[in-house]
From TrEMBL:
Gene Ontology MF terms: diamine N-acetyltransferase activity
Record keywords: Acyltransferase, Transferase
N-acetyltransferase domain location: 3-164
Protein name: Spermidine N(1)-acetyltransferase
The enzyme's E.C. designation: 2.3.1.57
Pfam families given in the database record: Acetyltransf_1
CDD domains: NAT_SF
Length: 165
């Protein structure tokens, strides 16, 4: 699968909304299945503390990643949070998430001078955990009953990647 990575644009909202409300994304995020398109449009509003990227293949959005910067918090400006990485169902396992995270890591290391990138992932999302480990993220702790699911509660892992600068 060939795709390009670029900044997310307001025109991406309908395609992104379809991904964000799809069952496989709802299962692994805090998203709800029935959200309004306006929520996704609002998410894409310009914000200097967000880096939002999409992966596009044949003009269609196949993935999205969002990094939250702490530029307004002097003692935390060296850190950022990988807030979300999602792909369309048919793009899973094709390198889209890896490529999106890779671009964000390079931006953090090279331009933003971010030393620490943190994230939270459900413990049952083994594919994501394996990917994060492969990209240098390490487990820092377990948050018990972090998210409510249809079956009950699920723990989450706190993970982070530290750079050398």
């Amino acid at each position: 699968m060939t795709f390009t990575i670029r900044h997310a644009e307001p025109a991406d909202a309908p395609a992104l909304h379809a991904i964000l409300t799809s069952p496989h994304v709802v299962l692994g995020t805090m998203r709800l299945r029935h959200m309004r398109l306006k929520n996704t449009e609002d998410r894409l509003a310009p914000d200097p503390n967000l880096v939002q990227l999409v992966a596009a293949s044949d003009g269609e959005v196949s993935g999205f990643a969002e990094l939250v910067l702490n530029t307004n918090v002097p003692r935390a400006s060296h850190s950022a949070e990988l807030n979300m990485v999602v792909t369309s169902e048919r793009s899973q396992g094709k390198g889209v998430a890896r490529a999106l995270i890779g671009v964000l890591i390079r931006l953090c290391d090279g331009y933003y001078r971010i030393r620490r990138i943190s994230l939270i992932v459900w413990v049952d999302n083994t594919r994501a955990i394996e990917l994060y480990r492969a990209l240098g993220f390490k487990e820092e702790g377990v948050m018990r009953d972090f998210v409510r699911t249809e079956e009950g509660y699920c723990d989450a892992l706190q993970m982070a990647r530290l750079s050398n600068h």
